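Can't attach files on this board, so I'm pasting raw text. These are the components:
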Amino acid sequence: MPKRKLDPLPAAAFQILLSLADEDLHGYGIMRRVAEQTGNRLRLGPGTLYSSIQSLLEEKLIEEVGPPENENVESGANPDSQQGSKPASKAADERRRYYRLTGAGRKLARTEAERLADLLRVARAKSILRGDYV
Amino acid sequence: MSEKIYAWLLRFYPSRFHKAYGQEALQLYRDRSRDERGLLPQLRLWFDLLADMAVSLPREYRRQEPALAAAAPQHIEGIPEFRSLDSGESPRPSALFSGACLSLLGFAAISLLISHGRTYQPLFLRGGHTQPTAGARSSASSHPPDSTSGSGNGKVLDPGGRVRDVSSQEATRQAATTQEAAQQATGPQPASLATKQAVQQGVGVPTQLQQAVSIQPRPQDATAAILQAFNTHDIVMLGEDHGVKQEYEWLNKLVATPAFDDRIDDIVVEFGNSLYQKSIDQYIAGEDVPMAQVEKAWRNMVGSVGPVSPVYGQFYKAVRDANRKRHGEHQIRIVLGDPYGDWDHIKDIEDLGPYLAHRDEWYAQVVKDEVLAKHHRALLIMGAGHFLRRNGPGLVEREIRGAGANPFLVVFGTNAVDGFDNLDNRFNEWPRPAIVPLSGNWVGELSAVSITTGGMAPATPLRLADAADALLYLAPRDALMQVNLTRKELDGTPYEKELNRRMMIQTGHALSSVPEQAETPMFQRPLPQRVAAGPHAPMAMPKSARDPLPLRPPSQ
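---
Top answer:
Structure tokens for the assembled complex are below.
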């Protein structure tokens, strides 16, 4: 059986799958969501981001979709940005490509999360993790 | 210009990738460039982009290897290109020389950034507090004031920033004492003003400071900032101003945020008498407990004199509601940090003395016993005056750091930058509520005392950046509202009778003014005649203040 490109699943690809779990996002939206969900520890640069997106598209784990209707013009972008409400941004937003998690992508993300949860259980059992908050 | 440079750099990627994602990558650059303004954010952006290129370029070429092998080699004059070497083939000497030059250039650029980028510290990655400047250290020896005359008739702010009801005599005394102390601490001119003038004149100010006063802060949504702080800190200390409507509206939303509830184990509050921990544990866990028993926790604080603002009862309820919604999931506990004095047995000021004198010690002990010993994460809420760093960290912070905690300190403040009549409009551009990191920007250079007291106390040389890690900004000073228990709600109740008894014990006079309205402006202009009335002798501390805390009775 040929080895898949995303086996094992790279951290960046997993974070992208997680970022798309709730809603469709464009590239910058994905970058911001990943930064948010990792506490700014992972800031995907354009090269890594679109390289990962390309791989995920090829594996049909995500798909490209049109911009969400009635969506805030800066969906996924900085909600505090003053420029976000300007017409120029709206035009730019319409040119953006949005991505959506496919069923296979959701399944793979779940499998990976379960794998990490198993690791966590082992770490807890070996008293490597202290406290009960993790 | 920089966009063109990045567009040019993108041409180094394989053409297939460039065609497919070049415009997207450029758009992403524009978005980040727009949102990350200022010199240091821009430098970080470029550092990210170059680091990303260094990693992703080789990967993209590896990915395209089959296509490259099949394609005829194309060379565009003047454009550097990547080539794969056959095994056994060595690079040309000229290529090695170019590589060495580029490496040296890279090292030189990084060295330059390191030597000139000391004012920048990554957001929320700071492990501890900043050390006071020489100016702050010298001023701290005279202990800058943080109590000041209250706004309304018969109100004062206590050292915790709490609004207390007192007689006009006491309010006058505290106002005058505060101003005197502040004048002693500040000398002729606040440091923030001196700094501003010196910067304008370009003399006598270190380069680093000149950079700081011109660097824009990066305010964040307050909830997101708190969540982010817990990624790198086990404790977040929130120095609050008591009874502020906007503050508790935000805190109630914070505790209803699932991501917060997932991460936090405990909220340690000043506004809860430890004597009633058992009742509060049951109440917060969703059990049925008579409200008359539950509300003793915040109504019977030893650190409070007047009627307690309704915001506290609402906050306990908000945590209870959040836990009930998450039944079966991780639950938050409210830990009570006020000393366990029992008002049923306090008959005079000597009975109260040991509890009043050991409020900070007890609070710190509770955090050590109930949070740190259990390896928990916690939000600590106490009056900003208790938490502010003056001559280094305050007692609570020192104690918990000694016990191994790594706290992050956020203090309440508003836009009164240099006394009551100097409001800074730059704050108006921030989202609300916002949390603003204080290191290396103009906010950190402002006077901590003026900002945290809404301008009620004059500016002192203590800088915000030396006093805390971040500022909680809720609204402009004159938009802040206080939530009150009204005269109508209090009149003729046993609670009013008990409050009068406590006032007599603590101040020697009965409860005077109670607001008629449920909401009043948090900061009102002090009446000039009250300040002009002159200083009065401060209240004598009870002799028992030197005694240790009595043994703790069983929790009720």
